[in-house]
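Issue 218. Parser rejects a valid record. Input:
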Amino acid sequence: MASAVVHYTASALTDRGRKRPSNEDAFGLSIEHGVYVVCDGMGGAAAGEVASTLAVAEVMRFLTVRPGTSPLPIEAAEAVTIANEAIFSRSQRNQKLNGMGTTLVALLVEDRHAWMVNVGDSRGYRLRASHLEQITLDHSLVEEQIRAGQMSREEALRSPLKNVITRALGTQSVVTPDIFELETEPGDLFLLCSDGLVRELDDSVVESLLRLDLNLEEMCSRLVDAANEAGGHDNITCVLVRAEA
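Output the parser choked on:
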């Protein structure tokens, strides 16, 4: 029996939040090419905004004009390498941008195949049959200690090191992304987000919002509004991608 053909729809929204003076998040999407990206920049002055914007631009540029001679996950890793080199090189040339970096989470889809790519603590989720699953693994000190059994989740929430990222684009000359391969089914809903969303909202709250009978644009607004109502301590960005028959 032939597999059902799927196509994808998407929507995105970014917001400064209630506490930050500027928005250092960035996103990009191309339904035509099946590429969706969220980046959360870091660095003094406007450096975080420069890093995230540059990362999105480089990844989108490479993956929307890719020659297609290599498997998509290999080209995704190459796109991350190119973005990392661009940010690192820019920071080396401009002292004001020294040390800037950005997280990255991306979703790449090709027919019924999908890949989640991440560096840092921006996250990728999949809602399937009303069950929300975090696909990516945070590259943060406390999350790595939790996975190693060295810290409880309650201790992580109180830890003064909870903002420490262990992997980011642009802070080192070389970075390795995690890549997760998935099979998609009609009805799957993917969420890419910066940590400004999930630091304010538990996964159970995110799941309940994603289960609402809303279009993707309205759903993005509900997620951002809920994060702001919960405190809005950081920039908030979400990209939603739905697989449809």
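Fixed in the parser; the record now loads. The first helix runs from residue 47 to 64.
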